[in-house]
């Protein structure tokens, strides 16, 4: 099993990448999170990459995380303390500056 790169509490940024503009792909990372910062809640284990499985390609096991984001910063609505919890694969995450 692939060891997770990020520990609980780590500040991360979702990569601002749009592979769908380069050709057919299957993306599990919501557009509204790309380029946004959040915090790792916990690693969930390593799973075959669904972006490869969708095209019947060999799929490496990649760590998956629960990542928490402040809701008001995503949609300009909600109250302080409102959050959104999302499952994201490690290859979409980078350390926040």
Automatic annotation (TrEMBL):
UniProt xrefs under SUPFAM superfamilies: Electron transport accessory proteins (SSF50090)
A Pfam family recorded for this sequence: NHase_beta_C
InterPro entries, per database record:
CN_hydtase_beta_dom_C, Elect_transpt_acc-like_dom_sf
Coiled coil (residue ranges)? none
* Domain called Nitrile hydratase beta subunit: residue spans: 2-95
- Please state what the protein is called: Nitrile hydratase subunit beta
Look up and give the organism this protein is from. Answer: Falsiroseomonas selenitidurans
